[in-house]
């Protein structure tokens, strides 16, 4: 039977039934007819975890929460690139032999070049689901956290150079033309207006929290369902998962010239937070079976390997009950959550 001769309407219908983006990639790779007939709209996907690839590796591995399996995807464009970071379905990659930066969609293998930026191994704070838009900034980068001079950079499609702010933090967030930077020392939240490059407000940490209190705590700044959340993880790499817990505060922007402040919340509604090692994002689980709202998926540090790298496993925290549990997951030393898309540049 000539499988390429199947009716395009039937092929298109089949392509809309895949629950895994890797299955859709394999479907599209069969032949030109199947690729042309496949859906251009990827069904809503639960986030996958991208295991950290080696520089120049064209075989990327994505762990699925639904199947508890690792899916392999071949991305030819990675042959001369190193993956630095990712956000909203796009990888920030840098050429192995020069400082050229690009955004790469590993699902469609399409790529857009970014302007030159004098930052070594930058971190991708945020990328728009559609970086080709021109009505606002679509890419936000932060300079290497090990360098003493902090620099953050912003870009919108069509611009030939970056807009920069002389500040930044690995634990930062881009939200509504504002750049929210968590100070690594004071734990203050500094709010910058990206358009004017000015400091708009400084929000102190909630009562009882400060530079060294509570000890061992990790803080994440996450945009969630139209709000900004301050998520504090009480963790110690030597304590068991079931002893981990979180405090969550929502940023209230003051009305009538009042200063912004933190308000403690006991639930986040139907949202689910996915936390990487230093940042995270939020989704609604309404389309996914087995994913509970009002919960946090986070990377639990389990110890330090011989080469000084931390080892992480996956855990889920139920905000309503305050219970944390470990989930099936390959032990990793790096990587990040990934939201697949079929966007082409």
UniProtKB/TrEMBL annotation:
SUPFAM superfamilies: DPP6 N-terminal domain-like (SSF82171), F-box domain (SSF81383)
Superkingdom, natural source: Eukaryota
Gene3D superfamilies: 1.20.1280.50
Pfam families linked to this entry: Beta-prop_KIB1-4 (PF03478), F-box (PF00646)
InterPro entries reported in the protein's UniProt record: F-box-like_dom_sf, F-box_BR-signaling, F-box_dom, KIB1-4_b-propeller
Domain F-box residues, every copy: 3-41
Domain KIB1-4 beta-propeller: residue ranges: 62-307
Name this protein carries in UniProt: F-box protein (DUF295)
Gene source species: Rhynchospora pubera
């Amino acid at each position: 039977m000539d499988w390429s001769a199947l009716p395009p309407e039937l092929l298109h219908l089949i392509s809309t039934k895949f629950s895994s983006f890797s299955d859709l990639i394999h479907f599209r790779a069969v032949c030109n007819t199947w690729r042309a007939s496949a859906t251009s709209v990827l069904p809503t996907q639960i986030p996958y975890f991208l295991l950290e690839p080696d520089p120049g590796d064209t075989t990327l591995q994505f762990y699925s929460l639904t199947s508890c399996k690792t899916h392999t995807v071949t991305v030819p464009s990675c042959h001369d690139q190193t993956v630095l970071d990712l956000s909203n379905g796009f990888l920030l990659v840098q050429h192995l032999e020069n400082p050229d930066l690009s955004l790469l969609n590993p699902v469609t293998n399409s790529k857009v070049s970014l302007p030159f930026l004098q930052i070594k191994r930058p971190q991708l704070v945020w990328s728009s689901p559609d970086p080709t838009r021109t009505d606002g900034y679509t890419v936000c980068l932060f300079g290497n956290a090990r360098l003493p001079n902090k620099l953050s950079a912003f870009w919108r499609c069509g611009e030939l150079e970056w807009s920069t702010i002389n500040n930044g933090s690995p634990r930062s967030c881009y939200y509504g033309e504002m750049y929210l930077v968590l100070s690594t020392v004071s734990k203050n939240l500094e709010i910058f207006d990206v358009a004017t490059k000015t400091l708009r407000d400084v929000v102190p940490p909630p009562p009882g929290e400060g530079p060294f209190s509570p000890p061992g705590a990790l803080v994440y700044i996450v945009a969630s369902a139209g709000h900004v959340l301050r998520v504090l993880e009480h963790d110690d790499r030597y304590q068991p998962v079931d002893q981990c817990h979180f405090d969550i505060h929502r940023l209230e922007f003051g009305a009538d010239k009042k200063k912004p402040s933190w308000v403690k919340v006991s639930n986040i509604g139907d949202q689910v937070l996915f936390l990487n090692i230093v940042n995270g994002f939020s989704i609604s689980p309404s389309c996914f079976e087995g994913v509970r709202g009002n919960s946090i998926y986070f990377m639990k540090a389990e110890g330090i390997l011989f080469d000084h790298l931390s080892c992480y496993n996956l855990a889920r925290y139920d905000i309503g009950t305050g219970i944390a549990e470990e989930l099936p997951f390959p032990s990793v030393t790096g990587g990040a959550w990934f939201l697949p898309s079929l966007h082409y540049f």
